[in-house]
Description:
Among the domains are: 8-99, no CATH class; 105-182, 434 Repressor (Amino-terminal Domain). Helices cover 48% and strands 9% of the residues. It has helices at 8-12, 58-69, 89-100, 106-121, 126-133, 139-144, 152-161, 166-179, 193-206, 211-218, 223-229, 238-249, and strands spanning 19-20, 25-28, 30-35, 39-44, 52-55. One of its GO terms (biological process) is DNA integration.
Amino acid sequence: MLATGVRIGESLGLLWPQVNLQTGEIEITHQIIRVTGEGLIRTRTKSRAGERVLVVPSWCLSMLLARAAQGIRLEQAVFPDSRGGFRDPSNVNRDLRKARSPIGDEVRRALSEQLRKARRDAGITQPEVTKRLGWSSSRISLIERARLKVTREDAAALLDLYRLRGQERATLLRLVDEASAPSEADAFSWLTSHVFRKTTATILDDAGQSARQIADQLGHARPSMTQDVYMGRKAKNPAAASALERALNAGPEDKTVG
């Protein structure tokens, strides 16, 4: 995605016959989507603008060559699932979330284990926690796997639910304070698939490519959307500063009276 700016569904819809390992060209024509009642479907891109031929950087071509060297079937997706079929974009998004979510240091892992033990000792399931605290379905799971920082407020709500009191409660709250300290594991928590696309657009923008060229790369029909969403806002009139600088810094002898 970073090498091309394509969407997750488009990358998963790429077949080997659409990859030219000699020229480094790939043909984007389809995407993978999930349709209720039908499952995964390989369908055309959102618009004709989405159908495009892209040239990948050398480092991406090296990756494709390495994958091809492992043995491929021509009708197979370039990035298949473990059984050779199409990957589900939702699953890939989930895997990306897991990969970028912080796996905490020892203190955070110890806290997650203690909270999981406290829940089980209380005889409460994760779905029950979700329902009674009004949390999202994945929140308690992420907490118990040390992938989400626990605030004192969250911890207090959990400990109240688990009916923890006295020294055991105080010990867990101290652990919460220690685990909330910044960790190197948080470095990539900001990373999303959208960031890959935006980064590609920013690199092309910085290289001086036009909005039309970047829109073609990303598969946008309207360059205006590319400018509004993906391209950085640069100074609209950089020469204005120089003109104002000259005018306002000029000495009395340099000024003319109109």
